[in-house]
Design brief:
- Pfam families: SteA-like_C, TPK_catalytic.
- GO terms for molecular function: ATP binding; kinase activity; thiamine diphosphokinase activity.
- It comes from Iocasia fonsfrigidae.
- Keywords: ATP-binding, Kinase, Membrane, Nucleotide-binding, Transferase, Transmembrane, Transmembrane helix.
- It is a single chain.
- The chain is 43% helix and 19% strand.
- It has a seven-stranded mixed barrel. A seven-stranded parallel β-sheet has the order 12-11-10-9-8-13-14, with helices on both faces.
- The chain folds into three domains: 124 residues, Aconitase, domain 4 (Alpha-Beta Barrel); 193 residues, 3-Layer(aba) Sandwich (Rossmann fold), CATH 3.40.50; 39 residues.
- It has 372 residues and is an alpha/beta fold.
- Helix 12 packs parallel to helix 14.
């Protein structure tokens, strides 16, 4: 296949999708393309993906490349050449017969993945899961042993929001988080929960008309627009004192609170709601299993295990709820609705002389027009 077009480059796919436009070529450096990244690229309707890292490394099965190919978006893995040093945003490139050209010069070599290759690579990756699971568990148990005391003694900041006895909705940028958020719209409308958005989860909330009460996280996947709309911004600071999102929030001139805590931002969002006295915590898009965490780039999920252990039965996980049930309208339902309308209408017509006269006039006019 020959592919030609303008390129947009960014080593972080989640940053690239903020700037790329329809029919442009995405140049990324993303080992094991995950479902969230792939779905974001599909939404942007990109022309093709050129990846400087293996889209499937074989470490674990990942569905990202399959999602892209099913959407008709070619995926090209580069085997030779550093496009980040030879290309700029907006440059025109041509990919043909395994070669990438710029201005007629070969600048890289690569392979376009087929659906058969993706299937075979993922089958091979599944044989590696036992090894990855063992490493994952070792890392998780090691973290629990070292960090459990610090994790359970987290001090939550004062925010001026009354959580006591209220429902809290936590929205995380995880698999199917947008669909799941839409699936619980009745719950949101009826219960009016306090909404805590974790990073990019804020964008999904605003897209559906929900204004987050709190945005918490590293601020690396949320848009400036959402940050400026937030009522409260909590910048996650880690145990070593680093707060990756602080610089960005300061640059935007926004008010914020620091929240020093170990673990992931979604974990401390749950702990915040719990410690502030929430009656029920509903979570959308959270990371709950080994594949989730490997896709997120984390070696273990100890903090998530500890957070869920502490929060206990106050937590309702709405991940995947959009796939639980799809409503179907059957023909007999439509027939029942039609009869329900027709019956009272017939009674009104039968007992109303004015309507009967009107219908007789319409019938007469119809016969005159069609010469009946």
């Amino acid at each position: 296949m020959m592919i030609k077009g303008r390129v947009i480059l960014n080593k972080k796919t989640k940053d690239l999708v903020k700037e790329i436009k329809v029919n442009e070529i995405a140049v990324i450096d993303h080992r094991d393309v995950d479902q969230i990244a792939a779905s974001s690229l599909v939404e942007k309707q990109v022309k093709a993906i050129i990846n400087l890292s293996p889209s499937i490394s074989g470490r674990y099965p990942n569905v990202g490349p399959e999602i892209l190919l099913l959407a008709g978006i070619p995926v090209i893995d580069i085997s030779d050449g550093d496009l980040f040093s030879t290309l700029n945003n907006g440059d025109e490139i041509l990919f043909k017969k395994g070669l990438v050209y710029k201005s007629g010069q070969i600048i890289a070599k690569g392979e376009e993945l087929s659906r058969e290759q993706v299937k075979n690579k993922n089958n091979q990756a599944r044989t590696n899961l036992e090894k990855e699971l063992s490493k994952f568990l070792d890392n998780t148990l090691s973290y629990i042993d070292k960090e459990k005391n610090e994790f359970f003694n987290i001090k939550t900041p004062e925010l001026g929001i009354d959580f006591n006895g209220k429902h809290v909705l936590i929205v995380v940028r995880g698999v199917d988080y947008k669909d799941d958020l839409s699936a619980i719209k009745s719950y949101i409308r009826e219960m009016n929960p306090i909404i805590i958005a974790v990073d990019g989860g804020a964008d999904a909330c605003l897209e559906r008309g929900y204004l987050p009460d709190i945005i918490i996280g590293d601020m690396d996947s949320v848009t400036d627009y959402s940050l400026k709309k937030a009522k409260v911004i909590l910048v996650h600071a880690y145990s070593d004192g680093k707060a990756p999102g602080l610089k960005r929030v300061k640059k935007l001139g926004l008010d914020y609170e620091l929240f020093p805590a170990p673990g992931t931002s979604e974990d401390i969002a749950m702990l915040l709601a719990y410690e502030k006295g929430a009656e029920l915590i509903t979570a959308v898009g959270t990371h709950t299993n080994m594949i989730d965490f490997l896709e997120k780039g984390r070696p273990g999920m100890a903090s998530t295990f500890l957070a869920r252990l502490k929060v206990g039965d106050k937590l309702v996980d709405a991940k995947g709820v959009s796939k639980l049930y799809h409503s179907k309208i059957y023909y007999h339902y439509w027939l029942q609705v039609f009869l329900a309308i027709l019956l009272p209408l017939s009674i009104v017509v039968f007992f109303s002389p004015h309507i009967k006269q009107l219908l007789q006039l319409l019938a007469l006019r119809f016969r005159i027009i069609f010469h009946l």
